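Appendix B, example 12.
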Amino acid sequence: MPSRDQHIDRPLFFSVVFLLFLGLSNIVSATIVDSYSGEFVRQLASLACGCCVFALFSFVDLKIFFRNANWLFVATLILLASVLFVGTTVNGAQRWIDLGPLGSFQPSELAKLMLILWFSRYLAGSKDGRYGSLKTSLRRFFLLYFTLAVPTILIMLQPDLGTAIVFIGVGTAMMWVSGFSWKWFSAVFLAGGLALPHFLHEYQRKRIMIFMNPDSDPTGAGWNIIQAKIAIGSGGFWGKGWMLGSQNRMNFVPEHHTDFIFTVVGEEMGFIGAFCIIVLLSCVVLRSWQLAKSSLSAYDSFLAFGLGTLFFMHTFINIGMTSGILPVVGIPLPFVSYGGTSLIVNMAALGILNNISQRTAVLERFTS
């Protein structure tokens, strides 16, 4: 086979570059105190690490992940379980492992990527075709959902409802495109819907209930939704200007540099800024799905589709909760929210997509 071209997938690369610029500028605005933002410096350090990871994953042989998917997934389960014993608790959630001077590490972010690698390996098997090559038996269906349930339950115990929803959504979407019967999905979701209330903590139940009427508890459970909608709405069309948002500067919106950073975008950059964020993230998602469709390898197809779905779910849930159309769950906005582990994992995912783009281009020329 001819040597691989050393090129960058331009739609993905430039979309992410603009997202990173917007994210860093809004992190500065959300965290600067007396002309200094420690979060900005740490995010820059994470970005530097992420760029190295992007380069590595862009050119590594993806067969390595294919051959070692089982071991990588088992290692991820061990990490998720270890959080429950040695993890650091922040705001009532035990999701991080303290690495001392290196900061903290959130295994659930890495687990999303490992899940996609494992599902892609299992769904693709040894076939060269795309979707539909898997024998969609009922036994395989329940095996996949059992495998999906184990990390999901570990994440729910942290607790982290947002990431658990992403796990279920990405895994289900990948199984759906592989050709399993919709009747089986209906049975699983019915059973899951009945069981879910028993796994929710009291504050999570309250968030879901308050979503229907946040004004019933405006200073309690409804505070986040109300203040987020005020921030986004007050930005108008053009926004108030960088670092000029009153909701942002006076800290009316909790976690406005992480899960609620879209409120900073809406208030200070207005409709234009929010629209640009949505368009750029949509470009990343659509380009990922386009790679899934055009790839000549089943494994590459499932990888690209899974990663695109991961970005889609993060975008939809984050923007949905900050704008008040979904209940509040803790989940970052890709490439925009503050968070070292999330950023590095996203850059790794971007590297895999760039790798697939190169492989697809080479294979197309080789087979033409």
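The longest strand covers residues 93-98. The radius of gyration is 21 Å.
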